[in-house]
Structure formats: C-alpha cells, structure tokens
Amino acid sequence: MVDVSNFSYRRVLARAKESKPVQVTLAEMIRWGCVGLLSAIGVWFASAVHHFDRRSPRKPLLGALLALSTATAVATIVTVGRSSRIPELRSMAAAALGLLAALVFQSALRATRDRSLSLAFSRATPPTLVITGPYRHVRHPLYSAYVLFWSSCALLAGTVAVALLVASVAALYVVAARMEEADIMRSKLAAEYSKYRAATGMLVPIPSKLRLNS
Description:
By secondary structure, the chain is mostly helical. It is built from eight helices and two strands, in the order ααβααβαααα. The chain has a two-stranded parallel sheet with strand order 1-2. The N and C termini lie far apart (about 85 Å). This is Isoprenylcysteine carboxylmethyltransferase family protein.
C-alpha cells in the first residue's frame, strides 16, 4: 500500500501556479508559418511529377539531384528546429522568395499545360519549342522555380551547410539545363533554338533581352 496521508493537494496546486506558461513569440509564429508554407510548396512541386515525361533519364545524375534535394529539405527543417531565434524579417523574406518560386512554377505549368515535359537529365527532346509565358524571357523557368525555392530554404536556415547544399542543387540544375540544350542543338530544332537562346536567359531574365522581348 502507498501511504497517501502526507499527500498535499495544496502543494500540487502551488507548483502548478508557479510553473510558467509556454510563450510563443511572434518570431516563432512567423518562423513556423514560413516552414509550413515552404513545406506546402515543396509538396506541390513534388506532386506535379505527373506533368513530366519520365522516360530515359540519366539516372545517376537524377539520383544525385533527388538525394541532395532530400538532404537539403531535412537539413533545413532540423536547422530551423534547433535555432533559438530567427529574425522575423529573414523568415518573411524566405516566405516571399518561396511564393515567388510558386508563382514562376505555376506560370511555367500553365504555359506547358498541353505538353508533357521531360524530367531533369532526360534525353528526350521536345517536338516544338515553348516560347509563351515565362519562357519568353527564361529558357528553363521550372528550374528557376526550383532554385528560388531551395534558395528560400537556405535563407530561412541561415547556415553555411544548408547554403552549400543549395548551391550543389542549383549547380545540378545548371548542368541539366546545359545537357538539355546540347540535346536540342543536335535535333531538328537547332536553328530555331539558337535564335531563341540568343534572346533569353537560361535561369534568370537578362534586362537587355527583356526589352527586346517585351
């Protein structure tokens, strides 16, 4: 039998009153709101895989890209979770960058809604060029959206480790874009694509070329 004669309910109530309630600061609310937003955007990006033709990928490079992307996502969440404080402005800037990535992604999907694009590092070449929507100014707007998204993760995390992971992911997207362009330049679209490439940026719009395409 347990002796409960000395058990004091007043002592328990006193300790309960002394315990401080958990306080959630505005910075923490904004930080985790940003994490939720970026997570939702990341899931949306991943769920759009049905829009792409998955035949004949260069599997080692595609595998490296997927592995680095996963590592970046995990590192971002762990870093943000362990961080004692992330400035509100940095969280809001990361959220804004993520929203910009989503806008570019949606615009590119809308411009290619009647087409099936290839995955990164695919050997497939398109039957025709897409030059509407964001493709008027950037040759690979989907890759631009991905780079913007991962850059928002690096900004939110604010560590060298995550920044290096994001730089590696961005470098792989540049490699993928160059490989795809090399494949197109060996296809029947070479002449047309050469003119298109001269008037657009690869991942970022070029101001002087924006005036030409406006």
